[in-house]
Amino acid sequence: MRLLNRSAGRLSRHRRGPLAGLAVVLLGLLLTGGLYTVFSPAQAGSAASSEEQIAQGRQLFLVSCSFCHGQNGEGMRTQEGDGDQTQLGPSLVGVGAAAVDFQVSTGRMPMARPGAQAPRKPETFSEDEVAALAAYVASLGPGPAIPDESDYSIDGLSDEERQQAITNGGQIFLTNCTACHNFEGSGGAMPRGGYAPQIRGVEPRFIYEALLTGPQNMPNFSNGNLSPDEKRDVIAYLGSLEDMPDYGGFGLGGLGPVPEGLAAWVLGIGSLVGAAVWIAAHTTRSTKKKVDA
Amino acid sequence: MTESHDHAHELVNVPDDAVVNDLYANPGIPEHQWRPTDVDPKAEKRAERQVAALFGLSALCTILLLVSYFVFDIGDDPDVVGGLGASNLFLGLSLAGALLFLGIGIIQWARKLMADHEIVEDRHPAASSTEDREATIAALNAGLEESGIGRRPLVRNSLLGAVGLLGLPAVVLLRDLGPTPNQVKNSGDYPGAGIEHTLWKKGMRVVRDVVGTPIRPGDLEIGDLVNAEPEAIFNGGADGEPLEGVALQIGKSKGAVVVVRMEPDEITPGKGRENWSVDGIVCYSKICTHVGCPISLYERTTHHLLCPCHQSTFDLADSAKVVFGPAARPLPQLPLEVDDEGYLVASDAFDEPVGPSFWERG
Amino acid sequence: MDTTKVAKTNATTAATAQKPNRAGAVAGWADERLGLATAMKKNLRKVFPDHWSFMLGEIALWSFVVLLLTGVFLTLWFTPSMGEVQYNGSYDQLRGIHMSEAYASSLRLSFDVRGGLLMRQMHHWAAMLFVASMMVHLLRVWFTGAYRKPRELNWVIGCLLLILGTLEGFTGYSLPDDLLSGTGIRAADGFVKATPVVGTYMSFFMFGGEFPGESIIPRLYIVHVLLIPGLLLALIGAHMLLLVYHKHTQWPGPGRTEKNVVGFPMLPVYAAKAGGFFFIVFGVTALMGALLTINPVWKYGPYDPSKVTAGSQPDWYMGWPDGALRIMPGLETHIWGITISWNVMLPILILPVVMFTILLLLPFLDAWITGDKRDHHLLERPRNAPTRTALMVALMTMYGLFWIAGGNDIIAIKLHASINQITYFLRVAVFVGPVIAFVVTRRWCISLQRKDNDTLLHGYETGIIMRSAEGGYTERHLPLPASRAYSMAARDRDPVLDGHDVDEVDANGIPAPTGGRLAALRHRLRTVWYADNVQKPTPAELEEGHHHAEHEHELQAPVEGHAADGHQFDGHHLVEDEHLRSH
User: Fold this and answer.
1) Domains of chain C: which residue ranges?
2) Cβ of B34 under 8 Å from any chain A Cβ?
3) Cβ A189–C310 below 8 Å, yes or no?
4) Of the given ranges (B183-192, B279-288, B310-319), which has the lowest mean pLDDT?
5) Could you tell me which of A195, C141, C402, C542 has the fewest CB atoms within 10 Å of its CB?
């Protein structure tokens, strides 16, 4: 069974394999190195260039965002009256860097057209530009900062704690998230053409930021509502779903009984009716007569 | 090849041949055409080998099935192939192979090798022959006559009455399937018993679901949604233990609430509900008034709450009135206040039963 | 009586017809004890006509057998109890969580019993196929008119099987006690509570107190594994017995009449085909169980009345009442201290009952309207009964629209539509759609009847274009082969309705019920039933048509110098030894 990937990606309570220790050490080294390369230049220059970064962010903001969010991020309403329908862009004072990082890094902002739903699309700005925008918006008023990987990673936990985190995260997920995003994060419908997007396969940072800032129509799960540890647990649970093998075969989109019913009709009944046609079909006939008949 | 039967009576009550087709005479069964396997010994041998090979493949798959059963692990450390559970995949595929090859083999045998002359069989009327029917009716009448059921209405009617009455125990004996709503309400077997009641009462803290921690108004930002429970879920059992078992399930099924915070000026308070919110924080029953699904699909900008079961939509900024869907009543609102320690509590119980409508609801 | 088997002596050896072979010996042994030979002598070689559409009911039968087999396997591990336990099995994400024993044992079946997950999935897939194939079978029976006398009771039995199958599916769906099954039961509790007067009591009796209580799963379990399967088994037995007794219907064709049945004998051909089909149904179920996840209960988590998931749907066969529930406007009456929930009652308590009642009564309705009291063993093509066909298509359309309503949220996200708009559209469409479907189907059938008539009168289109001396082009039509012409023309003429036969004797010699509004209604329905149908050509028309065709043929023959009638290329003949022109 060498070909088989035993316990692939599965959360194992028994990390006792002789190679496992080595693998963990290597992975740890790799991660540390990687993190260092990612963060060290930014940290080195951040203090010095903070003002500069905010200025750069403001420039970008004026070009790409101010049309809807106003010259100073104060938000914009259309001329006629007020209310939800007339909101062009909300005020960005106090939304924090996390909201900017979520909205811009996932390509939701800038939007193609104003509306309640901002679909994820290829991002417009580079990482540096996003950082500059975030720095500018963060400077408008205090708000949640971009979370650090240590906020949502369970790498630092012991096996037992991880297990605990995932189990707990599962319960919180099923209580707070599945109602809109479906039991395995496949997304779901919301009123008037809106939808809760698929959250399976979304980067942990974005999930954390979304919980923190409540993008578009999604409610907040601020830290006073859902503690940082609980957010981390939800992300851990989602990660464990991701890593989990499909025990029973292909997933049919993880949307519940509707695709299952469709599969029963199209594949099941389709193939069985096909079989019935074959069984009842006449076989080829010969022009010859049977010699002894 | 017509197989003839001796029939007691003819099939008469069917459309005649000439009615079915008044344009052409029935040309009769066409001459039998032989299959290649009937006339060509080579083709016949080939078909024979093909069928046997299919049976062989089936047997092979069965062996694979047995091997898969013992080889692939499940449980704690399951084998995985291509992201799929190996045990289920290989057991299923080999079982499917064993069955499909067997089935295809048998059908090929029938199609290619078994005699395929069409046989004609005569139909018989579904009805019995007149003599049989008359005899039966005569016997029936004789039986009825001898029993005197027609002549003795007293016996007949008392019998019917007695048998009819026997239907009652069949219903009455089911009475103890469960207590009546009133019995439940008066029993007090568990906190919040009765369809009109929930665990909520004045001063009951609103706590987060799953973790059971109480909530301060300051914990919540505008746009926050908390799926919450009455604190009794976590301390309402004997000696302040969490509820469990049936009491827990029933408690949750009526007590679950959603707490949302919005700009205070966005709330249109219902009549007499002006002080039911705390700093823009409102609390509603999570149980849909349609058929009882828990709802928490909340849109922060429109303040609409959607039910995923049948799409009833409620406006939480406006006393949870129904704005769309099959529900007919607003979600019951739980009046909120802040207790001495600064936590959100119910200032009273729900003023109406939660969940789906029922006859006596009023 | 077969006198060869009567003992003629008092010898110690039993009387036998002749030296039997091995199979005969076994049969003889059994017959001496059971006396089966009399019953079996006709049935072993009983004739079944061969057509793919006659095997649809078999899919249902065999998937029921698969359900019995896999179901027995599941019962060996499943614990139908709502007692609370702490999970300690192999599935990490739920370890330590409190749940019902039913759910814990479903997890155990899925993760700690080898083959358990396969059996669970096969059981669920087979259930979906069971109900689906019953419906496909029902449609075939309706569209071909096979439900007509003497088979109306078998139609009724079939409908009961469909209802019971649906209930059986729903009870099974509820057993694992995962989030989805619990949500289903919760909704069912809402339905029961909406029942006028006794709703609350019924709910309390069902659940042994308040929802969810701890009784519902054990109760549903015994309904699911004993009560309904027993009824299903008995009704399937009756259904099959009647099938054998009536003998199967057949398509009209050469040699096939109302008085015979033409096909293959039960032993060996039909037994082999049916037996083989069993293994194929079983195999397809296994294939689906191997490859396609169905109801991954571990991801839904244990039922908790405060949790729910987007896309909470019942299995497909409960989808249409659920859809009706979704598109129903929120109507409720509060009067005299009582509540009448029209929004629940109408779509879920009344509509299904009405629909099933209509379904049950369809054969009787047909017989009443047409006044046809004859037995029918030859099937009709759907086009030759336009109203009948259109009626079922209208019902199917309604069903389909309700079905769409049941999946409106999934459709909304997949097609980027709005659930609100879909709902508004369907509120109208469920009424308008069936009417449009009825009209379109009826006209379509009538057009097909016309086309058949053209083919009978003028022959089929050969695809050969003839150029006349004047330079005009025509397509060559040729008469049908005798067997096809016979099959096509083998249908009843509709009775002539002159508008005055209300109190008279109808085409079949049956006196119509005299007078009354009912008779008038029947007459009106009858007029609608047959209105605009195209009758097959009369013998005179046919004669004229053929004469015309021959005349044309004669005109063309000299041009070609050879009777190149085009038959060579029509696909109905072998062309090996034929030449288009001989020189």
Assistant:
1) 3-43, 47-380, 442-569
2) yes
3) yes
4) B183-192
5) C542
